[in-house]
Predict the structure.
Amino acid sequence: EAGVTQFPSHSVIEKGQTVTLRCDPISGHDNLYWYRRVMGKEIKFLLHFVKESKQDESGMPNNRFLAERTGGTYSTLKVQPAELEDSGVYFCASSQDFATWEETQYFGPGTRLLVL
Amino acid sequence: GNSVTQMEGPVTLSEEAFLTINCTYTATGYPSLFWYVQYPGEGLQLLLKATKADDKGSNKGFEATYRKETTSFHLEKGSVQVSDSAVYFCALTPNQAGTALIFGKGTTLSVSS
């Protein structure tokens, strides 16, 4: 079974440009999470989808970030326009069952974003 | 609020040394506790977890015990290998369905032969 995949693995863009990150969760997983780790700091939650619906987007830093999950399958996270402080590693995770808080989250390899 | 504090790194050990990485947490209710590991060039992997007080999670020679009285979940391994070199993250989820993980800052472990 394929794990969580993310694309691209690295992205270098200039301030003011737009970048779109993609996450493909494990097949059949209803829960999809986005997290971000800024250099040297904690990995922080951005938002949580249950199928195609946003369950919790309290971690989204501002309205330059837009996440979608069309049809409840893959998800995209768009940053527009990108700022220097958006640099970091963006992780995606998925889990199967919304009914239990013990459900393990499986992480992708992350996308390393550098904004110059 | 909920938070996780883990010891600052980097931790540098020789092969076969004993490892402890301290982790303490603040949470309301009864959180689940996790250790995730990130090997160089790879994504986060679940290393072990514990879901209630006094539970011991274990995997690949690593262990951690959920201590509610000290709000701790320290990671230990009796004899580390070079292949254990990685970044280790302590994390929790509050006792709510579908809740996001709350992570510590991560501890970098470097093991030399």
User: Anything to note?
Assistant: DSSP finds no helices and twelve strands in chain B.
